[in-house]
Amino acid sequence: MQTNWWQNAVFYQVYPRSFQDSNGDGIGDIQGIIQRLDYLADLGVNAIWLSPVYQSPNVDNGYDISDYQAINPEYGSMVDMEQLIEAAKIRKIKIVMDLVVNHTSDQHPWFLEARKSKDNPYRDFYIWRDPATDGSVPNDLQSNFKGSAWAFDAVTGQYYLHFYAKEQPDLNWQNPKVREAVYQMMTWWLQKGIGGFRMDVIDLIGKEPDRKIKENGPQLHAYLQEMNARVLSQYDVVTVGETWGATPEIGQMYSNPNRHELSMIFQFEQINLDKQSGMTRWDLKPLIPAELHAVFSKWQLALDGVGWNSLFWSNHDLPRIVSRWGDDSQYREKSAQALAIYLHMLKGTPYIYQGEEIGMTNYPITSYHEIEDIESRRVYQQRQQQGYAISDILNGINAKGRDNARHPMQWNGKNQSGFTDGTPWLPVNPNYLEINVELAKQDERSIYATYQQLIKLRKRNAIIRQGRFENVPTGNQNVISYKRMLGEQSWLVIINLSKNRESYTLPIQHFGPNQKIISNNLLLNKIAISGVLQPYDALVVAIGN
Ligand code: TEU
Ligand code: CA
């Protein structure tokens, strides 16, 4: 079977602000990443998705870009960036850049020009509308960061559209000049030798604000096909679209190679399984593992042979997975390993979020003043106005807030966890003395060791990369199971995703030789047709067919 490099690769997301500081200013930087490349090579990853390092006023931590072709001096220089690409290449690691082109910063020269006058050549780079007859907003479109998606600009007396902060005006993709400028910028980066792009909220670019269409607009796929023809098809690169609104059918449209759009997408269907139905993600409810597995199974089957899945638990917008769907107190290591085994035995390209490989946890806060993230601040303010109790607001933010994933990487037990010699921009989680890379690397049964082993298994076994997927019912909503099959080979994965002992019964009549591939429990070697699993037990066995 013909495969692309990115179908055989494991990715690692670096959030540069929090990864490694090299000069003591408390902010992670590009030289810091270079210092840690050997660590990443040793873990076994093949590509880094680098969150934005571009010039930015940092209203949304770099997702508000004021110059796509310059590096934010906090992170270094373009020379540092070129050095990173080169140093990574020596270690066979590709650098995948974040492409944030649904919007720019309001400090981008395009917007500074656009707002000057209605007939400025850059006016139509953005989306402007007259006020409603009573002077109010053109319509009730909402920003994803709360409040209206329209901001009034007094200079010309019109409103402009922003689906995120008002400092992140939306680009007008209907304007061919915008698309042309983006393609040129992408080409400029590709010629520097990067490995591809992660495309920020790419499903918004087909927006039609007058019809109140945000996601999945009518021209979305046409734009991506144009981008592919004009730019991407000339390079052997990966593209992964961030698409909150994708269904499996839409996922196929993006990732079916015959359609020439993207390599794969990040889909988020599982993300809503722990919110109360009809409410926001800040209104919590416990996850039912069977529901999670139903979503993953659906995507595995839907894209098989007609697209490609990405596999991820977390990113810089999501809480730490061990705190979210594992148990970060009693069973931290075991539950983190169970989650890792679950995800990394699926078909698709895995993405590890920095710190996930050592089981880093959420960072609980007790007051508004500890919130750094713009989204959490807005949510706090809005819910306070709506009359929620402060404790409820904080519970929601502690469980789901974006800062959770953004506290500094925990490298060792030294001051500030080895992240910085100065004062970190966000505090280090006090648990760094027990949870850090140095300790994890000394322990052959650590979470880190499991990730390393899973990456090796993936490289050595085509069944993980290419095998068919089949869901296996277990008769227990806390125990999930599936099979992977390739030729004569068949592997069974079984995982207890709860902190209780759980029984299961498999509908499988016959096992061939039952050979252990990986487990997080030394005592667990074989799987029987029925039995009992200890909390967070995870086991993969080859069962013949
Ligand atoms: O995120 C898209 C996005 O919609 C998230 O902000 C989401 O609303 C929320 O965080 C759910 O957890 C991307 C980037 O990943 C994010 O960091 C940016 O803030 C956002 O786009 C705007 O660029
Ligand atoms: Ca620094």
UniProtKB/TrEMBL annotation:
<protein>
    <submittedName>
        <fullName>Glucan 1,6-alpha-glucosidase (Dextran glucosidase)</fullName>
        <ecNumber>3.2.1.70</ecNumber>
    </submittedName>
</protein>
<dbReference type="InterPro" id="IPR045857">
    <property type="entry name" value="O16G_dom_2"/>
</dbReference>
<dbReference type="GO" id="GO:0009313">
    <property type="term" value="P:oligosaccharide catabolic process"/>
</dbReference>
<keyword id="KW-0378">Hydrolase</keyword>
<feature type="domain" description="Glycosyl hydrolase family 13 catalytic">
    <location>
        <begin position="13"/>
        <end position="406"/>
    </location>
</feature>
<dbReference type="Pfam" id="PF00128">
    <property type="entry name" value="Alpha-amylase"/>
</dbReference>
<dbReference type="InterPro" id="IPR017853">
    <property type="entry name" value="GH"/>
</dbReference>
<dbReference type="InterPro" id="IPR013780">
    <property type="entry name" value="Glyco_hydro_b"/>
</dbReference>
<comment type="similarity">
    <text>Belongs to the glycosyl hydrolase 13 family.</text>
</comment>
<dbReference type="GO" id="GO:0043896">
    <property type="term" value="F:glucan 1,6-alpha-glucosidase activity"/>
</dbReference>
<keyword id="KW-0326">Glycosidase</keyword>
<dbReference type="InterPro" id="IPR006047">
    <property type="entry name" value="GH13_cat_dom"/>
</dbReference>
<dbReference type="GO" id="GO:0004556">
    <property type="term" value="F:alpha-amylase activity"/>
</dbReference>
